[in-house]
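A quick aside before the break. I want you to see a complete sequence-to-structure record at least once, exactly as it would be stored in a machine-readable document. Don't worry about memorizing anything.
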Amino acid sequence: MTDADATAVEVAPRPRARRRADSSQRPRRRLSVVGVLGELLITAGVLVLAFLGWQVWLGDIIVGGQMSAEAQELSEEWNVEFSDVPPTEAGDPGLTAEPPVAGPAANAERFATLIIPRFGGDYYRPIAEGIGTRDVLNKGFIGHYPTTQMPGAPGNFALASHRSSGGGNFHDLHQLLVGDHIYVETPDGWYQYEFRNLEYVRPTGVGVLNPVPQVDGATPAERYITLTTCNPFFSTAERLIAYGVFEAFFPRAGGVPAEIASNVQGAG
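That is the input. The structure line, written in tokens, reads:
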């Protein structure tokens, strides 16, 4: 190979070393109003969700416990009032054909309690007159529709309560099974109803409050209980209705019916 041939060979130039960017020279990320606002909104959303979780879950547990304690206090007061009544054999139903019927209660007055064994051995809730949001329902009470009958009277004893707040009294209403017992306690004793069926209606479906539910103008031959609440959860789009029919009355002098002894004696 001659010198002339050697000059024909081109040697590729060596790549220049890239200069490392000085990290100190990089532009810093600038905070923007939109970014700050977004982070604040995310934080606020987390706080709102936490609050809702507390209100729906923990809040209902706390309020439910308070309501059970109040129901226990009512029962104990009634026991004192009826302490002089001669006792009967514990657990025997008394007047099933003509159970006692109390007169109307004043607005927001606690005049009865509700016990539903299907909802557990700690389910024990006070019933107050009226369905006002501030003075009854939001305080954790189950409300009685003033236009409907009192416990034991022929016709419809209708109640209302929140589904997922204020103690969540009717949270599990959809879990009732045909034949389940529903007890209403008054100073006189315990009215036992048997659950029959569920129904879903619009908020305007006031026929559920008729003396014979959903039948206009009919004269009642039986004693009904109707439980109403909102549906679906966290919505007021419709109403969930549970119906029951009176079966028996247990006078206070005979003692607590065995099926609900744990609810009544274990509350508080």
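Two observations worth writing down. The helical segments are 3-8, 33-81, 261-265. The first strand starts at residue 110 and ends at 115. We'll return to this after the break.
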